[in-house]
Design goal:
The protein folds into three domains: about 10-140, Alpha-D-Glucose-1,6-Bisphosphate, subunit A, domain 3 (Alpha-D-Glucose-1,6-Bisphosphate, Chain A, domain 3, 3-Layer(aba) Sandwich), CATH 3.40.120.10; about 155-340, Alpha-D-Glucose-1,6-Bisphosphate, Chain A, domain 3 (3-Layer(aba) Sandwich); about 345-430, TATA-Binding Protein, CATH 3.30.310. The chain has a six-stranded mixed beta sheet with strand order 1-5-4-2-3-6, sandwiched between helices. The longest helix has 16 residues, at about 410-425. β18 and β19 (about 400-405) form a beta hairpin. The protein contains 14 helices and 20 strands. The radius of gyration is 21 Å and the shape is globular. The protein has about 425 residues and is an alpha/beta fold. The chain has helices spanning about 15-30, 45-60, 70-75, 110-120, 145-150, 175-180, 210-220, 245-255, 270-275, 285-295, 320-330, 335-340, 360-365, 410-425; strands at about 10, 35-40, 60-70, 85, 95-100, 135-140, 160-165, 185-190, 225, 235, 260-265, 280, 300, 305-310, 345-350, 370-375, 380-385, 385-390, 400-405, 430.
Length: about 425
């Protein structure tokens, strides 16, 4: 039974997901004696949380409930426990929910740990703990303050700049504004109240952040900060009201922390190598980035907005990233830092599909005659003047495409050829977007 995608377990909330939550809790509880649980703001969060806690207790574990908390905050306090369980579907729409399992160092359960959970969930002969072995659950108070207090010493106080924060009514709604205010910022808030009915599409991409762009310009702010539902992601808007692409933000943040060894994903811009970093690339998904960072590295991230700072945790930390971007904007205009990063034309898109004829897709793609091909995650084809990546999404029923080249015309050509290859291979009903 395959349960885990590139960033945990996710599905539309229904009775099957609720039943699965109990089984996952039971599997975790049988092997981890002391576990902390948190949720984002989704309406189904409490139901999922209590199902997981029931499973944990039935497995013999002791359990602490941290309440509504960002994923990076839960990851930070998991160092006090044997494991953490975050109830979230991250950037997925509000009807989804899911489960992310965390180690004490903040990293997600790795591939071996995931297989062990999947095998335990599939075992129909599972047993619960004996009645005399059942532990209790309690409330963990102060998780948000612990996280904020751990971040503050790394940044100067008295930043004295205006920042607009759009938390999307997710788990960072009461965290990022509080952190930035304690750093001396004047904070203008958008969508910063806890609600499972997200007022904008919760993924922090440019199309969903136009209100934030306008607010930065209209309020004469130095920077805008945006999060997804559980704040493992952070994206920024510069002082000119421009959305900062993930590829450029990756470079800006790496420079800010003085990184020499950088871990990122296959779909990040080729410009990052040109900036002098020692780059190691992984499959797409923050789980793979954090797993590789265990082998060393100063900073890691993927261009979707997941930024990993090993100095605090191996979990993508949108809260810490918000402080980092605010500190940068207090020293120099973010627009100047962004414009100094080299950029090549890069296109990203997807095709909705429940399946694809892989032999046909591979044949179609190879007809493009690439110089080399990597199968680390889907098909990444390298050409003398660019590259094309075609892969199945790890979080949604989609085929994702990314193309980058030295010229816009060539990037569009690579993307269009890749899209045609996919559309000829997907199940009937595939839709490009």
């Amino acid at each position: 039974m395959k349960l885990f995608g590139s960033s945990g377990i996710r599905a539309v909330f229904d009775r099957d997901l609720l039943a699965l939550a109990f089984r996952v809790g039971l599997a975790v509880g049988r092997n981890h004696g002391n576990v902390v649980v948190g949720t984002d703001t989704r309406t189904s969060g409490d139901a999922m949380k209590h199902a997981v806690i029931s499973g944990l207790l039935a497995g013999g574990a002791r359990c602490s409930d941290a309440g509504i908390t960002p994923t990076p905050t839960l990851a930070f306090i998991t160092r006090e426990f044997d494991a953490g369980v975050m109830i979230t579907a991250s950037h997925n729409p509000p009807e989804y929910n899911g489960i992310k399992l965390l180690n004490p160092d903040g990293s997600s359960f790795d591939s071996l740990q995931q297989v062990q959970i999947e095998e335990a969930v599939s075992d129909e002969s599972f047993e619960v703990a004996r009645w005399e072995e059942i532990k209790h659950s309690d409330i963990y108070s102060g998780a948000i303050e612990h996280h904020i207090d751990s971040i503050l010493p790394g940044f100067p106080a008295g930043l004295n700049l205006k920042v607009v924060v759009d938390a999307g009514c997710g788990a960072a709604s009461e965290v990022t504004p509080r952190l930035l205010e304690r750093l001396g910022c004047e904070v203008v808030t958008l969508n910063c109240y806890n609600s499972g009915f997200f007022p904008r599409d919760i993924e922090p991409i440019e199309a969903n952040l136009q209100e934030l762009c306008r607010a930065v310009t209209e309020s004469n702010a130095r920077v805008g900060i945006a999060h997804d539902g559980d704040a493992d992601r952070m994206m920024a808007v510069d002082d000119r009201g421009r959305f900062v692409s993930g590829d450029r933000l990756l470079a800006v943040l790496a420079q800010a922390v003085g990184a020499k060894d950088l871990v990122t994903t296959l779909d990040a811009s080729m410009a990052i190598e040109e900036m002098g970093f020692n780059v190691r690339r992984t499959k797409i998904g923050d789980t793979w980035v954090s797993e590789e960072l265990k082998n060393g590295g100063d900073f890691g991230g993927e261009t979707s907005g997941c930024w990993i700072f090993p100095v605090i945790s191996l979990c993508p930390d949108g809260i810490y990233a918000a402080a980092q971007v605010a500190a940068l904007a207090g020293q120099q205009k973010l627009s100047e830092l962004v414009d100094a990063v080299p950029v090549y034309p890069l296109l990203r898109g997807s095709v909705a599909s429940d399946g694809v004829a892989m032999p046909r897709l591979e044949s179609n793609l190879m007809a493009m005659k690439p110089l080399s091909v990597s199968n680390t995650d889907g098909f990444k084809m390298n050409f003398k003047d660019g590259w094309l990546l075609v892969r199945a999404s790890g979080t949604e029923p989609k085929i994702r495409l990314t193309a980058e080249a030295k010229t816009g015309e060539r990037a569009q050509q690579l993307y269009d050829n890749g899209l045609a290859a996919v559309m000829d291979s997907v199940d009937t009903g595939g839709r490009a977007n």
